[in-house]
Amino acid sequence: MRILIVTDAWSPQVNGVVRTLNALIAELTAKGHDVRTINPAGRRSWPMPLYPEISLTEATVADISAEIAAVAPDAIHIATEGPLGWTARRACLRQGLRFTTGFHTRFAEYAAARLPLPGVLSLGWRVLRHFHSPSQGVMVPTQSIGAELERRHFRNVKIWTRGVDRGLFRPYPRDHLDLPRPIVVYAGRLAVEKGIDDFIALKTEGSKVLVGDGPERERLQRLAPDAYFLGFRHGEDYARTLAAADVMVFPSRTDTFGLVMLEAMACGTPVAAYNAPSPLDVVDDGVTGAVADTLEQAVARAILLNREGVREGSLKFSWRRCADMFESWLVPCGFRAAPDGAGQFASALPR
Length: 351
Known about the structure:
351 residues; Rossmann fold; six-stranded parallel sheet; 14 helices; globular
């Protein structure tokens, strides 16, 4: 099958969406699929207002329509709600092509956190619902997020879980961080919506370590001069950092999944998180980590867990299962090739 994925999130961005798509494409390719992408590479882009970590990419409906025709896909998946995603959506609707979409990020909450004005949250959800309304399958990473979208009147919601690279994320010798224990680690972007102030306020002995970077770093460093800010770490260096921790703290209440939780668990490091959507689906409470009403409670319970049990409990998540689920939710887009080999669009498709 020739699969076209349209995404505004792409390297060199460092986030869970990019990691998910890279792993997914590798697995789909290994299964024999021909996977193509429409992504920001080589296009004019600019930072997104209120969210400069994300780039907005310029594209026209005519350009995207031509690129779709050049690929001649069997299935189309629009992964993100950015400019490329919206433009591809319009191109598909104009030409009668069916597609699926991905719900990776709670942009409504993120916008409300960065622009706390009346109506921003409800407007954000209306925009997201409109974007996904023609989708033949809105792929969401957890049951909790799926249930929330259905309560918000999204249609065709499908569960599409995530995985972890077990060759990279595994138990290592725990000497990578020479710091007083217990070592509690936060890993991710240093942004307002991630709940990092709660991590900073966490009352714990030992050392607090933050892995990642973002617009909140300077402010957080002023709040927590005794914490260790390591910046981004990559590859085995990052995996060994997670493995060296006693607990990985996940303070976000808005993430749709949180790949860092799986990555820590695969290293044997238990996760401490709020009793909130996503941690409730990812963390097996009392086995791979602890969820609680406060982070202090979650850390106190998580730190007592058996690390081998944590690793074993994470085994149900794999990128192969992720690819299988993704494949199962795809729909034929309706594109057909003209007799002369040139691409054309089907004008009437069954709904």
